[in-house]
């Protein structure tokens, strides 16, 4: 064993392998030391042989290790899972127009807070307000960094120190343990829950009202459904009740949709415009879910309330930067032409792709991969399957799709669905797929056409 330790090169010799690279020296030293430490551990545990420590093989492994260790922390990932709005993979993919807008804003100075007409200081909050109002029918609008911030800011601005009435059936928790009761507590408001889990009536709201009631909060249960023996109060009735008591009706819509998608089988998701028209005073929703833009929380509604929210000192802590506003502005403008929105916004395009298109897409990927797969070890097929919307939207909706399935004929540790799933996480770029019935699946709904060749290269690197 001691002889194997002597075969390990020094740090200096290892560093010479990277003379032509641009890696920062300190980071390079850390990566090389980590690599050598890993090899020492393998020698100690009898997991490595002398032939693995020969210069050519060792330096090849070193370069691969350093390249992976010093690659960008945020990496491009191929989403082969079929989950369109994948929270863990960055949710919505931006449209090219949004990417171009981000690049323009990032590559130099921009008019983030400068009024070009007046030649003086302006406000970043006006950059997307007109577009939001035009597309939703709201009187005014405001954008913060996500929908949780939007809900917090609205409650803190309009209801601090008072009670807010919420139905028990709407006290939701979403991913990351974001809970409506906790957000209300942090915002300085007291929760007054009414009704039961499955049924809440108008009388429940009426009986709960007191001189300390500051608002009624309606929460769209976007990530679950109560079906069967259930009842809630329509927005227009709640609005009539709230306005008769001179308090606002606030609606947390969560995953906000600007287009009715029911024609594509995506039902039970109200549009922002429909919510505004129903009589609510303030609606909050996400920019990076069904809308298909960057992470943002959009607040839209009555001008008198938006003006009060804009005066909140916390707004500065929750505001968006120039990159987010640029991407959101470009995304919103695509919605002025619905046909263009479906064509250009990747999230909408993926959500509404037809079975025929997906089948043809799967066959193209299948044909591309078929020639490189060892036939004696794997079987490649195209099969019907189900995709998911993700992002807490349309929880009951199955999206019919097609997947290219890799079935492993040799049952060993190297050729198995589990092993390939793990290996794909280390390829460049990493691929996140799913395993079903001991098969590895590439769901083509969430794979861009230009990513097919990347998948092929990743498989070749594994083989």
Automatic annotation (TrEMBL):
Enzyme type, top EC level: transferase
Domain of life assignment: Bacteria
Key word Transferase present: yes
Keyword Ribonucleoprotein: no
Residue ranges crossing the lipid bilayer per the database entry: none
Modification type N6-(pyridoxal phosphate)lysine: residues: 289
Cofactor: pyridoxal 5'-phosphate
GO molecular function, one term: L-seryl-tRNA(Sec) selenium transferase activity
EC numbers: 2.9.1.1
Recorded metabolic or biological pathway in which this protein acts: Aminoacyl-tRNA biosynthesis; selenocysteinyl-tRNA(Sec) biosynthesis; selenocysteinyl-tRNA(Sec) from L-seryl-tRNA(Sec) (bacterial route): step 1/1
Location (main, coarse): cytoplasm
Record localization: Cytoplasm
Catalytic reaction(s) noted: L-seryl-tRNA(Sec) + selenophosphate + H(+) = L-selenocysteinyl-tRNA(Sec) + phosphate
Family annotation (HAMAP family): SelA (MF_00423)
PANTHER family per record: L-SERYL-TRNA(SEC) SELENIUM TRANSFERASE
Family indicated by similarity: Belongs to the SelA family.
Its biological purpose: Converts seryl-tRNA(Sec) to selenocysteinyl-tRNA(Sec) required for selenoprotein biosynthesis.
Protein name as annotated: L-seryl-tRNA(Sec) selenium transferase
Organism: Taurinivorans muris
Gene: selA
